[in-house]
């Protein structure tokens, strides 16, 4: 890849990571123990993955995950142990936000029409499910101990760790996923966005 094209792509990725970060700060709903519905904050990273490929998507998504850690430090502060902090950083930030960069995995260059829509929806759905799974795992393993000691104790004890985390995380990931799935084909199909 020639240097000027690589620089252009790098600048494009930086702009999209910045846009994703700004959109992540616009919260439509914020869950009480972390997690939120944002104004399509994953979409710029999804666009990069489709536009420039999965490797650029993963690189951009990793940088985005680091920025999410920095903007979410107040959530990490709730983790009571070093292992809790490390687990939170990995399973609530690095892994779920880096996974977004895989969205373009089903895209074959030059797809048009229905096949393009299918690959956009499949890739977007795929990363949304993986992100949700990471947050669910974190909730059941890391946050379960914290919720047992707080005002959520009765609810968590009644329904169990897995039901609690499945319900809690779908409360914000469900709307976030619906918005992202609805918007991704519209945005990505815009003229020239995949060139």
**pLDDT < 50 runs, ≥5 residues:** none
Structural class, by secondary structure, is mainly alpha
The CATH topology comes to Arp2/3 complex 21 kDa subunit ARPC3
Helix content: over 70%
> Strands across the major sheet, in which order?
1-2
CATH class: Mainly Alpha
Named at the architecture level, the CATH assignment is: Orthogonal Bundle
Reported for the largest beta sheet, the result is: 2 strands, antiparallel
Q: Rg, please? A: 17 Å
Mean pLDDT over the full residue set: 92
Number of helices: 8
- H and E order: HEEHHHHHHH
The domain tally reads 1
| Anisotropy-based shape | elongated
Strand % is under 5%
Structure in a nutshell:
The chain has 195 residues and is mainly alpha-helical.
Layout of helices and strands, plus pairs?
Layout: H1 3-24, E1 27-30, E2 36-38, H2 43-52, H3 54-71, H4 73-76, H5 82-98, H6 113-148, H7 153-159, H8 161-188
Antiparallel strand pairs: 1-2
Keywords for this entry:
195 residues, mainly alpha, Arp2/3 complex 21 kDa subunit ARPC3, two-stranded antiparallel ribbon, 8 helices, 2 strands, 73% helix
Describe the structure.
The protein has 195 residues and is mainly alpha-helical. The protein has a single domain (3-188), classed as Arp2/3 complex 21 kDa subunit ARPC3 (Orthogonal Bundle), CATH 1.10.1760. It is 73% helix and 4% strand. It contains eight helices and two strands; from the N terminus they run αββααααααα. It has helices at 3-24, 43-52, 54-71, 73-76, 82-98, 113-148, 153-159, 161-188, and strands at 27-30, 36-38. The protein has a two-stranded antiparallel sheet. Strand 1 (27-30) and strand 2 (36-38) form a beta hairpin. The radius of gyration is 17 Å and the shape is elongated. The two termini are 16 Å apart.
């Amino acid at each position: 890849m020639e240097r000027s094209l690589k620089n252009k792509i790098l600048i494009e990725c930086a702009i999209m990571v910045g846009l994703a970060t700004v959109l992540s700060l616009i919260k439509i709903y914020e869950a009480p123990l972390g997690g939120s519905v944002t104004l399509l904050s994953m979409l710029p990273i999804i666009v990069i993955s489709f536009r420039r490929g999965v490797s650029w998507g993963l690189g951009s998504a990793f940088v985005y995950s680091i920025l999410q850690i920095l903007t979410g430090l107040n959530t990490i502060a709730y983790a009571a142990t070093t292992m809790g902090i490390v687990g939170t950083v990995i399973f609530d930030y690095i892994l779920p936000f880096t996974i977004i960069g895989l969205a373009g995995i089903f895209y074959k260059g030059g797809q048009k029409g229905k096949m393009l829509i299918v690959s956009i929806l499949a890739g977007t759905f795929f990363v949304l499910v993986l992100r949700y799974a990471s947050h669910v795992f974190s909730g059941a393993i890391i946050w379960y101990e914290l919720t047992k000691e707080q005002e959520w104790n009765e609810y968590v004890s009644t329904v169990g760790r897995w039901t609690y985390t499945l319900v809690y995380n779908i409360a914000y990931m469900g709307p976030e996923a619906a918005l992202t799935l609805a918007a991704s084909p519209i945005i990505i199909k815009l003229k020239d966005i995949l060139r």
